[in-house]
Each structure stands twice: as C-alpha cells, then as structure tokens.
Design brief:
Helix content: over 70%
Number of strands: 0
Largest sheet: none
Shape: globular
Radius of gyration: 19 Å
Distance between the termini: 29 Å
Number of domains: 1
Structural class: mainly alpha
Strand content: under 5%
C-alpha cells in the first residue's frame, strides 16, 4: 500500500496496471473455493506462499527487514488476518458475488471512521452515497437467486464485517506508511497474520492441509495473486488520481461475480444484480464525494 499522494495526470500504463491488479484480485474468491482447505486455512496459505515472494521483492528494493516491525504494522497484520478469515468464510457460506460486493463497502467505512474519529466532516453527498451503498448491500444480501451458498445469511454478515476489518487495516497501514516502506509493511503484516490464521484454523477444526494437488496449486496461486494483485494496485495508486483509481478497482466484484457464474453456476437474479449495482454506485459516489476540492489553476503554486 502506498502513502496518499496528490492527484496526478492519468497515464495509460498506470491505468492498465491498475485494471490488471483489480482483475487479479477478483479471482481470489475462486481459488479460495478450490483450495480444498478450511476458510481460515486458505488465508494462512495465501500469506505463507506470499512471504517468500515479499522477502525477495523487499531485498531487491533495498527496503530491509532487519529491525523489528512497528506496532502499527503488527496491528495491520491482526486486522488483515481478521479480514481474510471473515472474507473467506463469507465466500464459503454465501455466493462469490455477495461476498465480494459486501466486502467492497470498505471505502464507505474508512470515510465514516475519518468523519467520526478524525473530525473530517464529509459532504452531504457522502451521506447519500452511504444510504445508497447500504440499501444496495441489503437488497443484494436479502435476494435469493441461483446458488447462494449453504448459509447465505451468515456468509453475508461475515462478508459485511470484512469491510470493517479491512477499513481498520487500511487506516493502520496508512499511518505506518509515514515512516515505513510499503514492502516492509506488507511483509511484517503478512508474517503477523499467518500464524493467527493458522491458529484459528486449528481451533475451528478446519482441514489445514489441502486434500489434493489441485488444492495445493490453488493455495500457491493465492499467494501469487496476493503479491501480484496488491502489488499492481499499490504501484498504480501512486500514479493515478484517487477518484479514478477508486472507480477502476470496482472491477474486482464484477470479475468475481462473472467467475462465480461461470464456474459455480451462481447466477444473479434481477433484484440481486440491481442491489449489487446500487452498492457499487454508492461506493463510487462516496469516494468521489470525499475527494479533496480541486485547487483553482490560477491560485496553484508554480513548480520550481
């Protein structure tokens, strides 16, 4: 994850990389379903297989891993472990589309936390966006159509809570980025979260070891997608305006819903599709309304 930067002019390469990252992350729920392990165990393997890649990338970037991680980085790891555990259970218990769309309420939660705790008063348009997002999420979660999982109510609740955990993860990483490199934070948060997910899997009596070669391949794929998808998004976020990036990454639930339909026969009914569209519209509107006001060209300082 990168530190917030001033909006920059969009370029084709950064936009292509951002789209690539969003599409890659959209396939994560599919590999979770194919992992042949429990939900928390799939999260453990995702981080475990990502760690060697993160070590290589961190050393190549010269960020270094010698000193101990900060408290904020460890908090980020705990929040990410909760995020993965709840999201993966949501994927197992409800439809891929529901789990992914409900998880994408995170931008709304982050802005709301900033409003309540950091005194960053949002615009009235943001309140309308929150209403739209919550109404759409409720509509989608309440709708019944096609294959929706063994326990859709519980799965929808787990997916919605994922947005909360990821919001706190996002805030912790944003604060840690003031003093630490992004790759260092990704490594230490992954190293913190992996044993927590393994412990949860064991306590819940999950199957930790994949039962097939295909399951092992899916677990390894989760690690690769974690590094490739998050890495691509982090790289592009430093080169695109936040408003543009926040809309483009909404490709993720669209990809997840399409993959769930093709692979798991999770067809979306008209009411459920409408709810998903309204939710994503609310999220996009919330991000757009929360952007900082544009500085008039006449008063903008000249570059030296």
């Amino acid at each position: 994850m990168t530190t917030p930067q001033a909006p920059q002019t969009s370029d084709g390469r950064a936009l292509a990389v951002l789209i690539f990252g969003a599409v890659v992350i959209g396939f994560v729920p599919i590999l979770v379903r194919l992992s042949d392990t429990g939900s928390a165990a799939a999260g453990f393997w995702r981080l475990a297989f990502a760690l060697p890649l993160l070590v290589l990338m961190t050393r190549r970037a010269g960020a270094g891993l010698g000193r101990a991680p900060s408290r904020l980085t460890m908090v980020a790891g705990v929040m990410f472990a909760l995020d993965l555990g709840f999201w993966h259970y949501g994927i197992a218990l409800t439809s891929v589309a529901n789990a992914t769309v409900l998880t994408n309420l995170t931008p709304v939660v982050v802005t709301a936390v900033a409003w309540i705790f950091l005194r960053q008063t949002p615009r009235k348009l943001f309140l309308l966006a929150v209403t739209l997002a919550l109404a759409g999420a409720f509509t989608m979660a309440a709708a019944r159509s096609g294959a929706v999982g063994p326990a859709p109510g519980l799965g929808n609740a787990a997916a919605a809570l994922t947005a909360l955990w990821y919001a706190f993860y996002f805030l912790a990483v944003s604060a840690a980025r003031r003093t630490e490199a992004a790759l260092r934070i990704m490594f230490w948060s992954s190293l913190t979260g992996a044993p927590l997910l393994l412990g949860a899997a064991l306590l819940l009596g999950e199957s930790v070891i994949p039962a097939s070669l295909g399951g092992w391949a899916a677990c390894a794929g989760l690690g690769v997608l974690h590094v490739a998808g998050q890495g691509a998004i982090a790289w592009a976020l430093g080169r695109l305006p936040p408003a543009t990036a926040s809309v483009v990454v909404l490709i993720q639930p669209v990809v997840a819903a399409a993959a769930g339909w093709l692979l798991f026969a999770e067809a979306l009914g008209p009411v459920q599709a409408l709810g998903g569209a309204v939710t994503l519209a609310g999220v996009a509107l919330a991000q757009w309304s929360a952007r900082p006001p544009r500085v008039p060209a006449a008063s903008a300082p000249r570059s030296l």
